[in-house]
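Dear Dr. L.,

I hope this message finds you well. Following up on our conversation about the binding site, I have prepared a predicted three-dimensional model of the protein together with adenosine-2'-5'-diphosphate. For your records, I am including the exact sequence and ligand specification that went into the calculation, followed by the structure tokens. Please feel free to forward this to your student if that is useful.
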Amino acid sequence: FQPGDAIYPRDENGKMIYHETDLCATWEAMEACKDAGLAKSIGVSNFNRRQLEMILNKPGLKYKPVSNQVECHPYFTQPKLLEFCRQHDIVIVGYSPLGTSRDETWVNVSSPPLLKDPVLNAIGKKYNKTAAQIALRFNIQRGVVVIPKSFNAQRIRENFQIFDFSLTEKEMKEIEALNKNVRYVELLM
Ligand code: A2P
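The resulting structure of the complex is given below.
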């Protein structure tokens, strides 16, 4: 394979071929995109603290990442990364905020289904909301942006109905305590 021929190129032994491009050089190219008016703001995805620091400490940094899109939901709450990002005004955008579609081709299904969680369902009953709405409200209430996916019009609407109630501090703590530090999206490649 030549670069660009395949989305996930592999070598002749089936091993994933990694990109050798320096992430800091990529960031500089993204800064140029912003200066050219091609992007309003620029951010990163799946960056850990070490990788964020590499950008933040880059000599001549022009724009900080505004966001870091990572897996985030009540079973994977990202407490340390969230705190670090808060300190640096980087917004966490949480993907798989409902615990994914549990598609076995890419999801670690050994972690139990998030939306069946008894605590989320019990809190939902109190507010006449679903476990999905509680999972989303939990994250937006702690400053995490959520990007739930649904192919269903009713559920897409449901996922917006999270701004007419708020969770108590005790409930926020209860949900935080559900953290298992286990990812659904392991990206093992
Ligand atoms: P569907 O497309 O049939 O609604 P994530 O956003 O964490 O990746 O989760 C996506 C999965 O969650 C999809 O399988 C989607 O199924 C389902 N889903 C989306 N919204 C809801 C909801 N409000 N209640 C239950 N399941 C939902």
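In brief: The longest strand covers residues 67-71.

With kind regards,
A. P.
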